Amino acid sequence: MGLNQDKVLDVKEVAEIYGISDKKLYDMCKKKQIPHRRLGSRIVFSSSALDAWGREQDKKNYQPN
Predict the structure, then answer these.
(1) Which of 16, 23, 47, 57 has most Cβ atoms within 10 angstroms of its Cβ?
(2) Which residue has the higher pLDDT, 63 or 58?
(3) Percentages of the chain per state (helix, strand, coil), in multiples of 5
(4) What is the mean pLDDT of residues 59-64?
(5) Of 17, 3, 11, 20, which is closest to residue 51 (Cα–Cα)?
């Protein structure tokens, strides 16, 4: 995967994508529940890491009939 395929997102963007508050997202980061990185005082997210995390969450939540 090339660098141009990965996008860096900030807290506001990710909170909007997932439909949660900034505060909830900060809490998830603090509890290491979502992949993120710190750049100085900023928290940023990799779109590819979030995609992979989302797929893993789907697998955990999948309940076959």
Answers:
(1) 47
(2) 58
(3) 55, 15, 30
(4) 80
(5) 17
Alpha-carbon dihedral 25, 15, 42, 46, rounded to 10 degrees: 100
Check residue 4 and report its DSSP letter.
Answer: G
Residue 5: phi, psi to the nearest 5?
A: -90, -15
11-18 and 22-30 are packed helices; what angle lies between their axes, rounded to 10 degrees? 100
Which contiguous run of DSSP H or E holds residue 8? Answer: strand 8-10
Indicate yes or no: pTM above 0.85. no
Within 8 A by CB and 6+ apart from 8, the residues are 44, 45, 46, 47
Per DSSP (E only), the strands in the chain are 8-10, 37-39, 42-46
Rounded average pLDDT over 18-46: 97
